[in-house]
Amino acid sequence: MTYQPRTPQPYQGNPFGFVYGGALTANVEGAVHVHPISYDAGGVTVAANVYTPADYSEVGSCAGIVVGHPNGAVKEQAAGLYAQRLAAEGFVTIAFDAVTTGESGGEPRNRDIPYLRVEDYRLAADVLSTFPGVDASRLAVLGICGGGGYALSAAQMDKRFRAAAVVSMFNTGSVRREGFQKVQADSVLKRLHDVANLRAREAQSGELVYSADMSAMDPEVGHNLPFDMYREGYEYYVETHAHPHSHSRFAQRDLMDLFAWDPDDFMYLIDQPLLMVVGEKADTAYMSESAFAAATGTEDKELYVVADATHVDLYWRPDATTDALAKLAAFYQARI
Questions:
Q1: What's the sign of the alpha-carbon dihedral 176, 178, 183, 188?
Q2: What is the CATH number of the domain that holds 75?
Q3: Which residues pair with 3 in a beta bridge?
Q4: Which domain range does residue 42 map to?
Q5: Which helix (H) or strand (E) covers residue 50, if one does?
Q6: Mean pLDDT of 261-289
Q7: For residue 21, what is the DSSP state?
Q8: 257 inside domain
């Protein structure tokens, strides 16, 4: 698949726009390099960063890892952190902006359609498999938060991924359908009818209705959101690791697709090695536990718990991410 160099957009003094800890500020000989690229996705331009290890050679045969970001996030946040650190372990990695998100094209913006999100991983695999120095037979996938759910779907169907891992997996379909921790399970049908009515109104007005964005939220409200994941998510995306391209809104019409999608339904199709990393204190842990139990197609699977970590801690907290990354590196090194 063809791709082209891309000029990154600087942000807060980082020439690549990165907002994660320990991020690259320049490509230095003998160290990890980042290669901003773009490629075509059916007429839509996708923006991505490829990270190469210190000993990278275009005639080498490195294993490659596709890294997907959380819902509403961008490649310059947690996905970039994991991609850079895994490149330091000898892998060639790619972190991309999902279509309609970040620097990637696509209209209307900020869509969360499962088919498109899963196809993002397949396209990134196309690119990585043709990147110089990458052995196309040694590909793996990593998804973070909502990107983890989509990474699982990608691994279920795309057997180019010889191993699959997720960090703080978030099952977007389950949460949109039944609510966080299933608190809205008894109102699924009513809310489906609400979405149908909303789409009817959109057809008349010609304008899409979006969910609220955290960036517009009053800090007093953000710091008192229910559930640790949402409260800490506000702090991460709005305060400590904010990026102008990230968002927390999505088109409400996408609920029609999300209600009918659930990675758990086809977890038995994962026959590759599987690693699921979850924080000990994560209020989303039940999602990883459910998917892990449903992964009956592989015996090589592990649910790895990072001590004293919440869901969002695994996006940035140095000790938590170091623990997770050590486990991930060992997993990939042994299996691809």
A1: positive
A2: 3.40.50.1820
A3: 39
A4: 3-171+212-248+262-335
A5: strand 44-52
A6: 98
A7: T
A8: no
Residues 6+ apart with CB under 8 A from 232: 310, 311, 312, 313
Q: Is residue 33 part of a domain?
A: yes
Cα distance between residue 138 and residue 134, in whole Å: 8
**Domains contained in the chain, number:** 1
b/e map of 13-33 (b: 16 or more CB within 10 Å)? Answer: ebebbbbbeebbeeeeeeebb
| In contact, 245 and 75? CB cutoff 8 Å | no
Question: What number of helices (H) and strands (E) belong to the chain?
Answer: 11, 9
Q: Which residue has the tokens 């498109």?
A: 116
Q: Which residues contact 240 (CB under 8 A, 6 or more apart)?
A: 316
pLDDT at position 325: 98
Asked whether the predicted pLDDT for residue 212 surpasses 90, the reply is no
Only one residue has tokens 């691809």, namely: 336
Return the beta strands (E) in 61-160 as ranges. Answer: 62-68, 92-96, 134-144
Q: If pLDDT is split at 50, 70 and 90, which confidence band does 56 have?
A: very high
Q: Is residue 256 one of the residues assigned to a domain?
A: no
Write down the mean pLDDT value for the chain.
97
Give residue 1's pLDDT band: very low, low, confident or very high (50, 70, 90).
confident
pLDDT at 275: 99
Q: Is residue 253 part of a domain?
A: no
Task: Assess contact for 139 and 163: CB atoms under 8 A.
Answer: no
How much is the pTM? 0.97
String of DSSP letters for 245-272:
T--S--BGGGHHHHTT--GGGGGGG--S
Residue 83: pLDDT band with limits 50, 70, 90: very high
Q: Which residue, among 71, 72, 96, has the nearest Cα to 83 in the 3D structure?
A: 96
Omega before 108 cis (within 30°)?
A: yes
